[in-house]
Amino acid sequence: MNRSLLIVLLLAGFLTGAHSLRAQSVKLRAANKQLESFSYINAVRLYEDFLRTDKQKNAAETREALTNLGFSYRKLQDTRNAERVYGELVNKYTDLNSEIYMYYAQALAANGKYRESQKMYSKYGEQQTQDLRGRRFTVSYMDVGRFFQDSSSYKTYSLPINTRQADFSPMYYKGGIVFVSARDEGGPLKRVFTWNQTPFLDLYYHADTTEIRAPNVDMLRQPNTAVLGGGSPSATKAPEIAAPVEQKLSKTQEFSRTLNTKYHEGPMTFSRDQKMIVFTRNNGSKGKTGKSNDGVRKLKLYSAINEKGNKWSNVRELPFNNKEYSVGHPAFSPDNSKMYFVSDMPGGFGGTDLYVVEYRNGEWGTPVNMGKDINTEGNEMFPYADENGNLYFSSDGHEGLGGLDVFFAELKDGVAYKGVENVGAPINSEKDDFGIITDKYRTSGYFSSNRKKGISDDDIYSFRRNCRELKILVFDAKTNAPIDQADVRIVRNGTNLDLLLTDPKGETKLCLDANTEYEFKAVKEGYALNTVRFSTLTQSPKPVMSVTIYLDKSENSIVRGVVKREVDQVPEQGVKVTLRNERDKSERTIETGPDGGYEFDMKPGAPYTITASKNKYATKKVQLPKTKTPKVVTDSLGLYGEGDVFQLKNIYYDLNKFFIRPDAARELEHVVKILKEYPTMKIELRSHTDARASDAYNLKLSENRARAAMDYIVSRGIKPNRLVARGYGESEILNGCIDGTDCADADHQQNRRTEFKILAVQ
Asked: Fewest CB atoms within 10 Å of the CB: 26, 465, 644, 686?
């Protein structure tokens, strides 16, 4: 429930109806004062007392007290009492604000009363025709069976690290998990949040996930098996949650005394190398400067660096923070090129929306709303990006089982091109479910929920997805002999996934996703490529769980490779790779998956070109060598992307000089070659000095050095309008040799360097 502390800070406004200006009962006035200060427990006590005992109250005061009482129970996640109060309002009055019907519908759904909820959503939709939630949920609750379709594939387990206080939003870190908790380990003076009288949130760490993960998770991954999730016939009821396994646990500890303060911390995310953390915290400014104009201390995002061990330092605010609205719940993409977060900043679609911001070379871009395919009129929050770069998040605006549900969006160029998918039970329930982290195929992971009791009970759960296994057999079409070491590429929706390899029996395996169309491409040197399809969209209760691919002998050659980013040699996903036969002009195109791999077969003697293209990357085109006899051609492709920064390793300058040395000229020839290969590319030449001499002198010196590098490149035939020269002086020292530090000249020379940054590729 303390997760809702973050929600109230993300949502500044709270009640649509203003309090009456007439003379009020003393008790009602006191209750309203508690509500306005977010002290919901005290507000509930005073409203209930007023409604029960005040004999002088009039009809208007009763209605106001009921409305505010229902809202207070709603904020406390007490759905049973919220249902009781909103039900009384709906039964007594016919001229209610439309939000009352919405809140009543949400409370009913959270209590598993979907038919009754459907009626209230219908009433809400009649009044608010522009809000799609009314129509969506009215239709959705006609049949909730679709939310249980894959539920028997999962097992969920309550973790032994949970406490009586809230524990939620785990994140992987160094073989363990960091999570948010309100556990009171600070002694008798631990401060509490007045809203619900619970301790403030801090970050905690459990170092070993092997102690707390779901049993037999390792059994999911067998040799020569690709795990692509589970699948099962539809179920009508989610499995029960298993109790935590009895075992001796290592100590769960405070994550960082530097990061934990007297206010709220969390949720958080880590960079890929886990040396950087971005985390949520209350605005730490003191006094009035820390509060918005409406008197609320909003949430902000901060970053910190881990220099040695677990000592976090250099805590900084992110540049897009604002005291007038909240930003929080960060989640890095797997390549750290962007970060997702939540905000109620102006211009959104609902209460809280998901945003994405680019992060390149230590610099943050401008946040962008993720659009109406992701965001709704409700609340979207708790994002997480998996290893494939796809997005999980929680929402109460998309159709679900009640409260916050976990949703999945497969992203292509930042767009949820297939829409948003409810992950279903048992990860989702009628209560709030959120804060999921998982592997790239959702075979195992962790999530948070208040399902156990529904009040003051955010807990962390692990889950395991059972394998529904499909055997893929590859045989020689003429002899029926099994083919060993054949490549089998899994393709889903035109996108390459895993590359499997057959064993001596010609066999490989994978675990199937439900409701999915598959394509399997088998290829082997000396054979023609062949493809079979398999679907889990419509199957009998006992389907045949194997497919056979027959390969014919062929004179064709095979071309295979991996598309990588030039800047770090990491495989790039989502690249369109096209093989073109220049003789008959035929083309075949695939899209790379997480491994960046591609495979095609080619007719011998024909001229072929292969092209790799992706948005914001320079298109790479290569002419393949003609093959007279069958062979395997390996031709991996490297892509240059906008924002990539390359250090020119051999460009150094003599002390206080800016002339291009012969070794530097040889390195600049490499840049000239790139610019000639990509005639629309524009770059910035970035020059740096060491820390000796004054800042002003070093800045001027670096500007001269950058200009000298630019002049050399122009002399080699590159147009000046494709180049920008900029000096950075001593502002970006690499090795700690700053002013006042005693360093060898060789160390200082590392800082006298030139880089080039790609500004545009078209």
From this structure: 26
Residue among 129, 107, 139 at smallest CA distance from 399? 139
- CA pair distance 400, 378, nearest whole angstrom: 12
Residue 311's H or E segment, with its range, is strand 311-317
C-alpha 731: how far from chain center = 32
User: Model-level pTM?
Assistant: 0.76
Q: Count CB neighbours of 733 within 10 A.
A: 19
Neighbours of 568 (CB within 10 A): 8
d(CA 35, CA 39): 6
> Concatenated DSSP letters for 551-615?
E-B-S-EEEEEEEEETTT--B-SS-EEEEEETTT--EEEEE--TT-EEEEEE-TT--EEEEEE-T
Q: How many CA atoms, within 13 angstroms, populate the side-chain half-sphere of residue 512?
A: 27
What is the pLDDT, as a whole number, of residue 537?
A: 78
CA distance 564 to 596: 7
pLDDT at 16: 42
40-53 helix and 26-36 helix, angle to the nearest 10 degrees: 160
Asked if residue 441 lies in contact with residue 164, where contact means CB atoms within 8 angstroms, the answer is no
From 447-451, 710-714, 738-742, the region with the lowest mean pLDDT:
738-742
Q: 284 pLDDT exceeds 70?
A: no
DSSP class of residue 288 equals G
Any idea of the CA torsion for 687, 689, 693, 699, to the nearest 10 degrees?
20
Using CA atoms, how far apart are residues 578 and 42, in angstroms rounded to an integer? 65
113-127, 273-287, 732-746 — most confident range: 113-127
Residue with tokens 């690249």: 575
Mark 575-614 as b/e (b = at least 16 C-beta within 10 Å): bbbbbbeeeeeeeeebbbbbbbbbbbbbbeebebebbbbb
| Whether the Cβ atoms of residue 445 and residue 436 lie closer than 8 Å to each other | yes
Average pLDDT value over all residues in the chain = 85
Q: Which residue would you say has higher pLDDT here, 82 or 493?
A: 82
Q: What token pair was written down for 17? A: 């109806």
CA angle 15, 21, 24 (to 5 degrees): 95
| Beta carbons within 10 angstroms of residue 245's beta carbon | 14
Rounded average pLDDT over 477-495: 91
CA 498 to chain centre: 21
Helix (H) or strand (E) holding 266: strand 265-270
Give the separation between CA 611 and CA 600, rounded to whole angstroms. 13
**Tokens 């008959």 map to which residue?**
584
User: Which residue in 95, 105, 101, 98 sits closest to 128, CA to CA?
Assistant: 98
Residue 649 DSSP one-character state: T
753-760 and 723-727 strand pairing: unpaired
| Alpha-carbon torsion (158, 163, 165, 171), positive or negative | negative
Largest Cα separation within the chain, whole Å, is 100
**What CA–CA distance (Å, rounded) separates 615 from 628?**
35
Sequence-separated (6 or more) residues with CB below 8 Å from residue 507: 224, 471, 472, 473, 474, 482
Cα separation, 460 vs 452, whole angstroms: 11
Nearest to 8 by CA among 262, 196, 290, 182: 196
Residue 401 has pLDDT above 90, yes or no: yes
What pLDDT shows up at residue 307?
Answer: 72
Instruction: Name the more confident of 708 and 279.
Output: 279
471: left (phi over 0), alpha (psi -120 to 50) or beta: beta
Say if residue 733's pLDDT is above 90. Answer: no
Specify the long-range contacts of residues 349-353, CB closer than 8 Å, at least 24 apart: 349/375, 349/376, 349/377, 350/375, 350/376, 350/377, 350/378, 350/379, 350/380, 350/397, 351/10, 351/11, 351/377, 351/378, 351/379, 352/7, 352/10, 352/11, 352/379, 352/380, 352/381, 353/380
Q: Cα separation of 717 and 669, whole Å?
A: 11
